[in-house]
Design a protein that fits this description.
The chain has about 675 residues and is an alpha+beta fold. Helix 2 runs antiparallel to helix 7 (about 310-360) and helix 7 (about 310-360) packs across helix 8. Strand 13 (about 285-295) and strand 14 (about 300-305) form a beta hairpin. The protein has helices at about 1-5, 10-85, 110-120, 160-165, 205-220, 260-265, 310-360, 375-515, 520-640, 645-660, and strands at about 90-95, 95-100, 105, 125-130, 135-140, 170-175, 180-190, 195-205, 220, 225-230, 240, 270-280, 285-295, 300-305. Among the domains are: about 85-210, 2-Layer Sandwich (Beta-Lactamase), CATH 3.30.450.20; about 380-640, Methyl-accepting chemotaxis protein (Helix Hairpins). InterPro entries: Cache_3-Cache_2, HAMP_dom, MCP_chemotaxis, MCPsignal_dom, Sensor-like_sf. Keywords: Coiled coil, Membrane, Methylation, Transducer, Transmembrane, Transmembrane helix. It is found in: Membrane.
């Protein structure tokens, strides 16, 4: 509801008044509901008290009537006993008992009882105890057929019968032969204090009781309320003794609309008030309030019942008065609240609304008057502060927008120059990239040649190393030959020595043979042959020695030359190794140079691409600067709609700021 109220186009005063009206209405409704409940409860309590008081009056009347009947019956009983039953005894005459009262036979003496009834209006009966039963021998009580109740016995189930056997009296209400009596049964004792009979004195109050019932039937509680009487106990419990409509019915099993046996509930308590729902013939439900109280002397339960709606009808007028007063209070309070709200809330808020509408239209010169320090006053102060802040903000925006315009123009000019230089740099980088590409190709060719030379040098180094090894082996062989020739020369020297010794030995042998004469002639021949052989051996040894010496000289010469060749070959190997290392270094350096040139080329290419991108970005920045300048001008036009305080002075300041020369700054 409040959400719908919030979305309407009514002014705040009406909304607040309606909200107040709704709130007050709800409060008043709750209050009236509480009052109604309280009034209803009070009316119910009052009705219950009235019904209980009325019940107490009826109860008091019945109690006093009962007490009067009891006292009268007891007095008459005493009179009867004092005059006609001062002494009692029984005689057996044949098969029957004869009761003597004051020495006279009471059997069949109805005249005595008639005279007593004429004097006292009380009915009387004399009983004799015969075989445990009290048998009537004289009586003024009439049966339903009009005959005297002579020969009748007291039912054994009656409480009076049990009390009489015990020698006790019984005083209470009893119904005999269709009549209601206040009965007083008193035992008759003989000289031995034995119960021999009984006297019944009864006050017939059937007419009086009927008048009481008639009175109860005619009694009204409110408009439709009534009294009724129920039998409390015994076989007839729940029987309606007095009722305007259902008298004589037994309602012991009667249920209310909820299925509860309300009659049994009431008869189970001595007194109280019970509220229950009953169904009408048309199946409608009516709520009944019943106040009841047990009247034990007569075994009655007296009740008064009234429709609850009738009880509450008295409160409806009061409820109507409350409703009218509540509506008047709501309208009066709402009108007063509306007037107060309009004076203290709506009008100040309306002033604040005018200021905010002026602010919305760009007029920042309006301010709301503040006349209070409450929340509304603080709100108006906040609106004024907002206007002041907006005024300062718009001034600042105008100044900053003007500065942005100038700065964007300067950026645009600088970007144009930067774009030209970037394009020149891009062209130079393209040429450098092409030159680096050619240089890279040359360096790669040199690196390939250096790699080939390095390969050839390594192969030559391997050949020279192999030749060096061969020369070394030759030198070693020549050294071995020299050593072998030297050993041969030594052997020849030994042979020459042997030949010389052999020659000496042969000479000695010849001498000895000569000395021996004929005996030594053969030995002398042998010695001569040996000498000749030794001579030839010596000559041969000399020749061989000469040849060996020549060979040694040649071997020495060859060894020296081979050694020189080995040394030269070793030097050549070392030089070739140096050349190989240099060529390898040249090849490695050429490879690195080629890689470096490639990286430089890639870097130059990247720089060229970056330069191209920078050129594009410079163009974009230039376009953005131009767009920023346009937007700044549009912003100036947008904020130009605001009307500021001291507008003339502020405009001159802006024009002065705009006209100030700005030295363009070129971006590096």
């Amino acid at each position: 509801m409040f959400e719908k109220l919030r979305k309407t186009k009514w002014n705040l005063g009406v909304k607040l008044s309606l909200a107040t009206l709704l709130t007050v209405a709800v409060i008043m409704m709750v209050l009236m509901f509480v009052i109604n409940m309280r009034v209803t409860s009070t009316i119910q309590q009052r009705a219950e008290m009235d019904m209980q008081q009325s019940m107490d009056m009826v109860y008091g009347f019945l109690a006093s009537s009962d007490q009067d009947l009891r006292e009268r019956t007891q007095r008459i009983t005493k009179v009867f006993q004092s005059e006609h039953a001062r002494s009692a005894q029984t005689l057996d005459v044949g098969d029957r008992k004869v009761l003597l009262l004051n020495g006279a036979s009471a059997n069949g003496d109805n005249a005595l009882l008639d005279r007593f009834q004429t004097l006292t209006t009380a009915a009387s009966t004399v009983f004799v105890l015969d075989n445990g039963k009290f048998k009537s021998i004289a009586s003024t009580v009439e049966l339903e057929d009009g005959n005297r109740a002579v020969g009748a016995t007291i039912p054994e189930e009656l409480e009076a019968h049990q009390l009489l056997l015990q020698g006790k009296e019984y005083l209470g209400l009893i119904k005999l032969f269709g009549k209601e009596f206040m009965a007083h049964y008193s035992p008759l004792h003989d000289a031995n204090k034995q119960v021999i009979g009984a006297v019944f004195i009864g006050m017939d109050f059937s007419a009086f009781l009927e008048s009481i019932k008639k009175t109860l039937r005619e009694l009204k509680v409110g408009k439709d309320g009534y009294y009724f009487v129920m039998q409390t106990s015994g076989p007839q419990r729940g029987t309606i003794l007095v009722h305007p409509r259902v008298e004589g019915d037994n309602l012991w099993e009667r249920q209310d609309a909820q299925g509860h046996k309300y009659i049994q509930h009431m008869l189970g308590h001595d007194r109280g008030t019970h509220i229950y729902d009953v169904l009408n013939k048309d199946q409608s439900v009516r709520t009944m309030m019943t106040t009841f109280r047990r009247f034990a002397p007569w075994d009655w339960s007296i009740a008064t019942s009234v429709n609850e709606s009738e009880i509450l009808a008295a409160g409806k007028q009061l409820q109507l008065i409350f409703i009218v007063l509540g509506l008047l209070s709501i309208l009066t309070l709402t009108g007063a609240i509306y007037w107060v709200l309009r004076r203290t809330v709506v009008m100040p808020l309306y002033k604040g609304l005018e200021v905010t509408e002026a602010l919305a239209k760009g007029d920042l010169t309006q301010r709301a008057p503040v006349h209070s320090e409450d929340e509304i006053g603080k709100l108006l102060q906040a609106i004024n502060r907002t206007a002041d802040s907006l005024d300062g903000l718009i001034r600042t925006v105008q100044q900053k927008a003007n500065g942005v315009t100038l700065a964007s123009e300067e950026i645009a000019r600088g970007n144009a120059d930067l774009a030209n230089r970037t394009e020149s740099s891009a062209s130079a980088l393209e040429e450098t990239a092409a030159a680096m590409e050619e240089l890279g190709s040359t360096v790669r060719h040199n690196a390939d040649n250096a790699t080939t030379a390095d390969t050839l040098a390594r192969q030559a180094q391997q050949v020279v190393n192999s030749s060096g090894q061969t020369v070394t082996a030759l030198v070693e062989t020549m050294s071995g030959i020299n050593q072998s020739s030297q050993r041969i020369a030594d052997i020849i020297g030994v042979i020459d020595g042997i030949a010389f010794q052999t020659n000496i030995l042969a000479l000695n042998a010849a001498v000895e043979a000569a000395r021996a004469g004929e005996h030594g002639r053969g030995f002398a021949v042998v010695a001569s042959e040996v000498r000749a052989l030794a001579g030839r051996s010596a000559e041969a040894a000399k020749e061989i020695k000469t040849l060996i010496q020549n060979s040694l000289d040649e071997v020495h010469s060859g060894n020296a030359r081979a050694t020189e060749a080995g040394n030269s070959m070793q030097q050549a190997i070392e030089e070739i190794n140096k050349v190989s290392r240099v060529i390898s270094e040249i090849s490695h350096a050429s490879t690195e140079q080629s890689n470096g040139v490639g990286q430089v080329a890639e870097a130059i290419t990247s720089m060229d691409q970056a330069t191209q991108k920078n050129a594009a970005l410079v163009e974009e920045v230039s376009a953005a600067a131009q767009s920023l300048s346009v937007q700044a001008n549009e912003l100036l036009q947008a904020v130009a709609i605001f009307k500021l305080r001291n507008q003339g002075m502020h405009s001159s300041q802006l024009r002065a700021g705009s006209a100030a020369p700005q030295e363009p700054r070129l971006l590096p």
